[in-house]
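#struct-pred

JT: dropping the chains for the assembly here, can someone run the whole complex?
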Amino acid sequence: MYAASIRSVPDRKMMKADTTMESVLKVQNLGMNFGGLRALDDVNLDVRKGEIIALIGPNGAGKTTFFNCITGIYPPTDGDVLIRSRGGNGLERINGLKPNKVTEKGLARTFQNIRLFLNMTVLENVMIGRHCRMHAGVLGAVLRGASTKKEEKNVVEESYAILEKIGLAQFVNEFAKNLPYGAQRRLEIARAMATEPFLLLLDEPAAGMNPHETQELDELIKRIREEEGISILLIEHDMKLVMSLSDRIFVVDYGKNIAQGTPEEVRNNPVVIKAYLGEEVDA
Amino acid sequence: MVSVWFMFLTFPIMVIRVNPVEHVVEWRWLNMVLVGIGSFFLSFVWNYSIRRKEIGAKKSETGEGTNAIPLSQRLLKKKEVYKPALVIFGIFALTYPFIFSLYQTNIMISALIYVMLGLGLNIVVGLAGLLDLGYVAFYAVGAYSYALLNYHYGLNFWMALPIGGVLGAMFGILLGFPVLRLRGDYLAIVTLGFGEIIRIILENWNEFSFGPSGIAHIPRPPLFGIELSVQGSTIFVYYIMIGLCLFTIFVVNRLQNSRIGRAWIALREDEIACQAMGIDKAKTKLTAFALGATWASMGGVVFAAKTTFVNPASFTIWESIIILCVVVLGGMGSIVGVIAGALVLILMPEYLRAFSEYRMLAFGVLLVVMMIFRPGGIIPNVRRVYTFGTGSQNDES
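RK: done, full complex below.
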């Protein structure tokens, strides 16, 4: 059952060479106003298939607002959010869609301040992620016919498989609130993976983690990309992690793009050093 | 300290008695001593239990108590305990009307109606986390739909029951739409208003609902066309209620661990995360409201059939609060808890009639004490535990 959900394993080298790879997410001239405050102004970003992209910037630069605009929590004031259409080719505009529709289309996210369903078990948290890929309605649940039973059984098995992969299998029946912090962060990723996304948006996945946990996270994110072929867009403050993971980096400040490029380029970009790292820091 | 304070506080009531006829003041010092001793003991017990609770909390923090499932749940888990208990309870429930008097059976019927209402509200409040203070409105919808359908079209109980349920669901959706964006306190206020609107409409729209005088002579449920005596039909209603309760338990139990039930709980836990996981918030909320209202409405139909009379006075805000208390006291989200809560809350005031003046006091004290020492309710909910055999995992990969 589980094997079916694994997508083709992409060859990383080939992908790096081929820069004309199709985009899975293309954000053009995105703007967001909160009353008179312009939180995002003309932001552009694109993610190609199989890439790991980092979005960095000082606190309050608008990174999380950017995520919220893409995932439909806020409707963007102007600009376009285009994603690869599910199944077909080409891009599809998703501005103003409800968050659940966006998730159905294949974008899944985690949250900066962990938002797990604390009073549900770990497995149930992941099963919630499967919700939009299931169909049983009220009648189905009450009558519990053969198809509902089968669906329910599959969901339990698939969810467990995801937990095994993320390394949380030992906590299956634990309440989410009783999990150690690092495990909660990973559970958020597991829950997002359960929605079968082609692009995973991680909002500060390493926040509050110790170096050892960060190292594990680094490996986990790489593994998700290698094994599942899921593209990843992450916001992160931990520079070591960002430099180790990302293929390309976008830098925003005051809601505007200020730089983009490979880790080396961004690291040596004077604008970035000035705006983000501070002038006296020798990055 | 506490006892001295209490002695001082109750001094004017308990100790001084002015006799206005003879113009003398009686000093009842003995009472003061009694109050002092009594409050001393009470505060002692209070402090002791608070301390015990704190120790318990500390234990669970350090991880010692994480596996300590409450005794009630552990008992429910053990097959050898709950099977015979269920059988005994079942036999007791079935023979109840023949053992006890008609009066007792009537009380039990109202308790069972509350079990049903509680289980319905449990969907809305306990599972979906939507605080609904106007739940009684749907109860009224059910009762009046049977009363009016019977009055105008002569429909009998069995036809009115599903129609009432559907009408209730429709009203649930009607209330659900405007409150989709609200939650917490705001939702509570709106639902409170909705409950009052329904009651006031019923009270004032004379042409429709016959106003405060209500509708009388509602027939009791017929049994295959046989006319039953008052006693016979009461017993019959009792069995109908048992059946409906079992049906409710069955449905709620199935829903709880289904796709829909999980979505409700996720909605309660975190609305934004729930949407971000692909759950349609609007649809999920509306299903919760509609299903909750259906049970209330069906309870209302039975209520109308049982009392043979409905008027708006039966559907005040107080009823909503009682039903909410049933859910909270019993244990939010827990089916067994809600049943226990309904039985305790409805039967207790009835059997405390002997102390009629103090029964509301006892009721209040019970609620306060429960919420401090068992915030999860009498029997808190536990989530389903899934087991994974090592064997089955191998053939999957």
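JT: nice. Chain B is about 70% helix and 0% strand. Strands of chain B lie at 16-19, 24-27.
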